[in-house]
Queue: 3 jobs
Job 1
Amino acid sequence: MYKNLKISAVVPCYNEELGIAKVINSFPDFIDEIIVVDNNSTDKTSEIAKSLGAKVIFEKRQGYGRAYKTGFKAVKNDIIVTMDGDASYPATPIQQMLDRLVDEKLDFISAARMPLDWDKNKDNIKRFVGNKILSLMIMILFKQNIEDSQSGMWVFRSKVLDIVRIRSDGMPLSEELKIEAFCHPEIKSIEIPFQFKYQHREGSSKLNLWKDGFRNLLFLFQKKIFG
């Protein structure tokens, strides 16, 4: 519990046995429950998560968004914290995000990654450029200045899920949730930049940079047209 509010962490996982222990152990002690959504893993992700006290939920239907939506349904607490299961995000910003959420009476906060010393290899450059293109399109289509549209680290009140309409079962859920939260007049949302020390993900990446990048871009146009 933190400032009289109960906190749930939701972590989607697909074959993250190399990173999930690091993620779970990094959460602050005031997190009341950690929900790991095993998205049809074939490794020991769920066994490791259970051994560390996490609540494991199984979702056989593949998809980043599908896993998150299943995890969100299991939350009964006041506030939700999200983190990827590959240990690429540090947990250190969580307390500051919670402080601002509570003290400023906000509803949704997204962390914008500002790496201090990231490896400028070919894939990381692609990720950086792709993220900027998607963020620019969100500005053009939805009039929202979101610096890191693909960030998977959010802190928000559970009641937000009763207001937003998220339909993506895949990677676009990240940008869709932000668009819904930032555009809705009843949801007080901000983005907070953090200077993250770049952390290599544990295990192999499930992201296909070109394929998922185009899917995310196409989704933005579909979202604009169909809502």
Note: The first strand starts at residue 7 and ends at 13.
Job 2
Amino acid sequence: MNIKDDWDNIKLHFNKCYKSNLHVSVASVNQENIPTVTPIGSMFLNKNLTGFYFEKYISKIPEHSKLNKNICVLIVNSNKWYWFKSLFIGKFKNYPAIKLYGILGEKRKANSIESSRFARRTKLSKGLKGYSYLWGKMDEVREITFYKAEKINLGQMTQ
């Protein structure tokens, strides 16, 4: 998979997967060189091989990034109908999962476009009690520059 050539398909996959998962899994490596995984529900992909996430509750990744800014993002399509149809026909029409490799940028204040994208994603839950607990004051983001993408191979189903 060529990240530059396939970026539009990767973004489409990301958007489909977010609808079934509401998060992606992000792996980083701690000071003892032990990998850890963090679920992030506020990640977005941009047009130019970059992305960002809102860094409100995330504590391990910023700590790990002081020594190693490399991360891996796992994006899985967990939609039951997607899997059922794929199992029925004996193959996946498109990627069941993709890994994106990236380098973390610095944490900074979110701009108006980023805040607007987050508001659109969470608008259905805005009137609910937990909305302000989880998503109130989401104002700092961390940028990611992606440099590599891999399709997840699931044998004959992904050929």
Note: The two ends are 13 Å apart (CA to CA).
Job 3
Amino acid sequence: MKPPRRISLREFQPQIARLERRLFLKQGLSLGALSLLSGCTLKDDDAVDRLLFAMSRFNDRVQAALFDPLRLAPTYSDADVTTPFPFNAYYEEKDIPRIDGEDYRLQVSGLVADRRPWSLSDLRALPQSSQITRLVCVEGWSAIGKWRGLAFRHFLERIGADLTARYVGFKCADKYYSSIDMPSALHPQTLLALDFTDAKYGYPLRLRLPTKLGFKNPKFIGEIFVTNDYPGGYWEDKGYNWFSGS
């Protein structure tokens, strides 16, 4: 039997570039991690996929370990707000969902004590705060916006969420879904935003986490659930880095 052919890193540059885009590992793959590929015996793209996917999940664990739940993202003034604020989604602006605020009810489920639905007036009755922070998109652009709403930690406490659970997940009216780790959910700057620039940016409710990339800020939220089972996400299930701190 012939010994397996050793494949150099240079042979896989096109695949690596493709997978970096898909997994958002351009900044996450270290030189040492890439050097692992140069000594691997790989027969097809699937093997590269599996290796880089494993690296992405390892990167998730490293980011989670380094996350400081008390470190604040930079804040800005009203004069710094980006106008117009860019619209971004996996669909065109004309396809945004139209939601009647009077009929809207936020559903809660999973590891929570109180599962009653929340109307917009219920949410607005809770203490509100605002922030002007930068949203960073993985596509390479960023914009400063102003959001106002309730501290997500306060909301989780009000519904009796298990704050030792691993994940908080979101289901949205635009068929988007995502999830975050509990420490990020409890970060003091994480908001359930009720007021922002325009309805197309998530009316009537969106999540705002200045500590994470833009695609971790789901819009048009219809349900929040708390769980210990990995929930994944729309882009995450396609291979994007799950933790995605900014």
Note: Strands lie at 107-110, 129-136, 142-151, 167-172, 177-181, 191-195, 206-208, 221-227.
